[in-house]
């Protein structure tokens, strides 16, 4: 098998027998060489289909089937140059096939119209489906006829009928392993023919998954069968573990294992963002309000007090709870990552995994190392550098909130290299928010929670636009000096969203580079807001 | 053969910019030969094929090149009075997939008022099960794709309240996995196409706040391979259609910048056929209308200047949705 292994494995790593066959055909071997290699390969991987089926598959018109498979799937059809003679021959074959298809379809629709529900129609439908398994209406017609026969009690041997149906879906799945219609028909047959042997189905799934462990239709089908069989989760787990051992990188199996494992998985590094709720209070009323807060299914009684500005927050919990046992395990795993990094300091997965571990073990202890490794990732995994910088921003903001114990009054996140906002719902309390000397360049929409902010400082960022600044009713002073705002309109168009504004600083932006720009801007802004204090340099 | 990175190598001589005129020629020519083998054998998805073609033309500002009547007449022929659904082509059975395509076509051609809206709503609402999920037709296949089709269709018709949205949301959320992604039903493996459907579903229903966008966003940005193309699952080859599903999902989640846009653009450009026009799944493969739409749509999302902006949720031109007053949620970052 030297011929196959290299190019094939590197290309897509699939050992599905169809692909192996196609590969041989692509290589245009002579018939004898082809047959010898195929027999050898069949013996290795293709044991659950009988030889006759394989030879049928190899028979006349295989090239067309292959073309059709890829067309129906609309993937992976390689463009090749063909001679005029080859094209002509292919055209003839296709015309012949098309004729059969069309006549078959016409005949079936005619019978359906006349209400004929017999075995002859079933045969006809089966023939067309084995040419083109994605004609969903044909699967429907089969089901209609079968239901009719069950109702009329004309099915004498349900096991045979059911098995024939399963066989038909197998033929179709050979043409297109992802045919939704064929997979669903298989489930439908299992549901409607309880006499069928489910254990046999399980064995078939296992064999098929040996050929292509990533076919999620087959995993779904296997799940369908095991749930009908009532298999215990332990039995299922042992099967999945076996598949993982066979192919360590098999993501489908990993997925299956985690789903079956009682569903108690936790993510180490995720916290859902909670929204902010604001309400107007009656001005003349009491110094206390009792409210009920429902978060998911937990209801909490909360007292809003005047000396706390009538503000209540659910205490942010940024660090996950990790049991001592798990922590010990994580420390061990972190050590392994670190050893790998000593050998290859630039390798992505140990860097990324170790960051997750360090966050779970102790963010305070590892703070600097977490920051350093995330910055390394920004450098080494360039395509995703914005992901790492956003995640770093998130981490740094968490750290600020932790060390500050949710301050009131003013809050500073300056000079942290932030590219993104997180937890802005906690901004609701602050009157002065300083976000200067960062790398903010995207939308400012998330500042919408800063409902009590009177002074907003955004100096020295990478802002190119203020179009998306949210409605900030209390802001009196806004500073956006040292950014990349190119036109006066960026300010003029957003001024309505800042109804309380009294002072604005736009110094050192491109649009106020020269005196003309400055004068023009001041003039226009003064027409909109005559009393505004404007700083342009 | 564990842990192989599967990817393609983009050669130097592949196209470096958008060959828009060629693609238009390709689409207008496609299907003119009604005896073409491939064309006939794909009749079971004709309605979606028409939507692919029309959306591409509309995004390229070339809708005036086709006759509107030809399409609206086709839709009429595919309507099934009894159920209220649409089939892929005349004579075939109604299905939710083609009902969405038919409604999308009518929206793009500004002929929603011709649609039998009450019948369509009855059809869609009738496919919802007590657990909130949707079947594709009366034969009972359940899939999160159909949940998306249901809410997208109803939202385009401004009739979202005709189903139990709360239950529908619960079902879709029950299909979320440990990796943040979504599958076709509970416990099914995460897959970019189904993630698009589920994120799109939550965008239509305004429930994107229910998911951890950072977690899912990370899984999605990990789909970008060294060639710049995106795959649909770990360890799979890159593909233009998955590139759309991933980039559209990231856009809805407000995290489009988590991948390299330039590299993705390069991959999509390389998947054009410079001879016939059209896009294929990967450089060097044969083009088809399906990948042509998703290539053009992804380029539009990436800000290509010759194209009009496309809506990431509906995969339809934004101006069509604005005209209809249809809104969809997008998270901000
Ligand atoms: Zn594709």
Automatic annotation (TrEMBL), chain A:
Gene3D superfamilies xrefs: Protein prenylyltransferase, Ribonuclease Inhibitor
Protein origin, superkingdom: Eukaryota
Catalytic activity: geranylgeranyl diphosphate + L-cysteinyl-[protein] = S-geranylgeranyl-L-cysteinyl-[protein] + diphosphate
GO biological process: prenylation
A Pfam family per the record: PPTA
EC assignment: 2.5.1.60
Alphabetical keyword list: Prenyltransferase, Repeat, Transferase
NAD among keywords: no
First-level EC class: transferase
GO cellular component assignments: Rab-protein geranylgeranyltransferase complex
Function: Catalyzes the transfer of a geranyl-geranyl moiety from geranyl-geranyl pyrophosphate to cysteines occuring in specific C-terminal amino acid sequences.
GO molecular function, one term: Rab geranylgeranyltransferase activity
SUPFAM superfamilies membership: L domain-like (SSF52058), Protein prenylyltransferase (SSF48439)
Name used for this protein in its record: Geranylgeranyl transferase type-2 subunit alpha
Record InterPro entries: Leu-rich_rpt, LRR_dom_sf, Prenyl_trans_a
Family to which the UniProt record says this protein belongs: Belongs to the protein prenyltransferase subunit alpha family.
UniProtKB/TrEMBL annotation, chain B:
GO biological process entries: protein localization to membrane
Cofactor: Zn(2+)
Catalytic activity: geranylgeranyl diphosphate + L-cysteinyl-[protein] = S-geranylgeranyl-L-cysteinyl-[protein] + diphosphate
Keyword Metal-binding: yes
EC primary class: transferase
Single GO MF annotation: Rab geranylgeranyltransferase activity
Record EC number: 2.5.1.60
Function comment: Catalyzes the transfer of a geranylgeranyl moiety from geranylgeranyl diphosphate to both cysteines of proteins with the C-terminal sequence -XXCC, -XCXC and -CCXX.
UniProt-recorded name of the protein: Geranylgeranyl transferase type-2 subunit beta
Source organism of this protein record: Apolygus lucorum (Small green plant bug)
């Amino acid at each position: 098998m030297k011929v196959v292994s290299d190019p094939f494995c590197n290309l897509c790593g699939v050992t599905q027998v169809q692909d192996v066959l196609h590969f041989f055909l692509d290589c245009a071997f002579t018939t004898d060489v082809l047959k010898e290699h195929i027999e050898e390969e069949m013996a290795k991987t293709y044991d659950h289909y009988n030889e006759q089926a394989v030879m049928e598959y190899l028979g006349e018109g295989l090239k067309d089937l292959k073309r059709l498979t890829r067309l129906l799937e609309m993937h992976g059809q390689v463009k090749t140059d063909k001679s005029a003679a080859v094209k002509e021959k292919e055209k003839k074959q296709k015309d012949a096939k098309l004729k059969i298809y069309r006549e078959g379809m016409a005949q079936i629709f005619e019978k359906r119209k006349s209400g004929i529900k017999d075995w002859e129609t079933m045969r006809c439908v089966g023939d067309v489906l084995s040419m083109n398994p994605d004609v969903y209406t044909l699967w429907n017609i089969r089901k209609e006829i079968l239901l009719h026969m069950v109702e009329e009690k004309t099915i004498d041997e349900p096991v045979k009928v059911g098995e024939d149906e399963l066989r038909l879906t197998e033929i179709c799945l050979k043409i297109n392993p992802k045919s939704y219609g064929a997979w669903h028909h298989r489930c439908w047959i299992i549901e409607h023919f309880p006499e069928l042997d489910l254990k046999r189905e399980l064995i078939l799934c296992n064999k098929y998954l040996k050929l292509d462990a990533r076919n999620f239709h087959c995993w779904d089908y296997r799940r369908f069968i095991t749930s009908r069989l009532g298999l215990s989760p332990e039995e299922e787990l042992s099967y999945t573990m076996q598949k993982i051992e066979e192919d360590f990188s098999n993501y489908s199996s990993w997925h299956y294992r985690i789903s079956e494992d009682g569903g108690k998985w936790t993510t180490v590094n995720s916290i859902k963002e909670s929204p902010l709720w604001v309400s107007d209070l009656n001005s003349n009323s009491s110094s206390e309000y009792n409210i009920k807060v429902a978060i998911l299914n937990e209801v909490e009684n909360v007292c809003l007090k005047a000396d706390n500005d009538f503000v209540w927050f659910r205490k942010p919990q940024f660090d996950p709870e990790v049991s001592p046992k798990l922590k010990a395990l994580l420390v061990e795993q972190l050590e392994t990552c670190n050893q790998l990094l000593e050998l290859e300091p630039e390798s992505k997965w140990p860097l990324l995994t170790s960051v997750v571990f360090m966050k779970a073990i102790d963010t305070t202890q590892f703070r600097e190392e977490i920051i350093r490794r995330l910055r390394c990732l920004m450098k080494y995994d360039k395509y995703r550098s914005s992901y790492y910088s956003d995640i770093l921003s998130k981490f740094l903001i968490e750290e600020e909130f932790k060390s500050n114990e949710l301050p009131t009054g003013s809050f500073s996140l300056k000079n942290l290299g932030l590219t993104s906002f997180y937890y802005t719902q906690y901004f609701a309390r602050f009157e002065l928010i300083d976000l200067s000397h960062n790398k903010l360049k995207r939308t400012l929409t998330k500042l919408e929670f800063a409902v009590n902010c009177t002074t907003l400082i955004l100096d020295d960022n990478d802002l190119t636009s203020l179009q998306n600044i949210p409605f900030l009713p209390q802001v009196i002073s806004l500073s956006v000096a040292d950014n990349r705002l190119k036109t006066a309109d960026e300010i003029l168009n957003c001024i309505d969203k800042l109804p309380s504004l009294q002072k604005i600083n736009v110094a050192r932006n491109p649009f106020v580079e020269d005196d003309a720009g400055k004068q023009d801007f001041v003039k226009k802004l003064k027409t909109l807001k005559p009393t505004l204090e404007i700083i342009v340099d | 053969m564990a842990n192989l990175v599967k990817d393609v190598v983009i050669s130097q001589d592949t196209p470096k910019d958008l060959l828009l005129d060629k693609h238009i020629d390709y689409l207008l020519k496609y299907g003119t030969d009604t005896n073409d083998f491939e064309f006939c054998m794909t009749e079971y998805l004709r309605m979606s094929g028409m939507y692919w073609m029309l959306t591409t033309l509309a995004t390229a500002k070339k809708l005036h090149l086709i006759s509107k009547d030809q399409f609206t007449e086709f839709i009429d022929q595919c309507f099934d009075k009894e159920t209220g659904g649409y089939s892929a082509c005349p004579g075939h059975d109604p299905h939710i997939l083609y009902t969405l395509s038919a409604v999308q076509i009518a929206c793009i051609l500004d002929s929603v008022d011709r649609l039998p809206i009450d019948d369509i709503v009855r059809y869609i609402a009738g496919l919802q099960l007590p657990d909130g999920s949707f079947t594709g037709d009366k034969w009972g296949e359940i899939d999160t794709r159909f949940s998306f089709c249901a809410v997208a269709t109803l939202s385009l018709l401004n009739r979202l309240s005709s189903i139990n949205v709360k239950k529908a949301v619960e079902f879709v959320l029950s299909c979320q996995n440990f990796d943040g992604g979504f599958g076709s039903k509970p416990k099914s493996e995460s897959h970019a196409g189904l993630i698009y459907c589920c994120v799109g579903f939550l965008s239509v229903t305004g429930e994107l706040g229910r998911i951890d966008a950072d977690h899912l966003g990370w899984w999605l940005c990990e789909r970008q391979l060294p060639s710049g193309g995106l795959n649909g699952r770990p360890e799979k080859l890159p593909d233009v259609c998955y590139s759309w599903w991933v980039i559209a999902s990231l856009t809805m989640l407000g995290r489009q910048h988590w991948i390299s846009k330039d590299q993705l653009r390069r991959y999509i450009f390389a998947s054009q056929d410079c001879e016939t026009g059209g896009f294929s799944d990967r450089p060097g493969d044969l083009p088809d209308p399906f990948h042509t739409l998703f290539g053009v749509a992804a380029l539009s999302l990436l800000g290509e200047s010759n194209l009009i902006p496309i809506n990431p949720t509906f995969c339809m031109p934004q101006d069509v949705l604005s005209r209809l007053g249809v809104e969809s949620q997008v998270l901000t970052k």
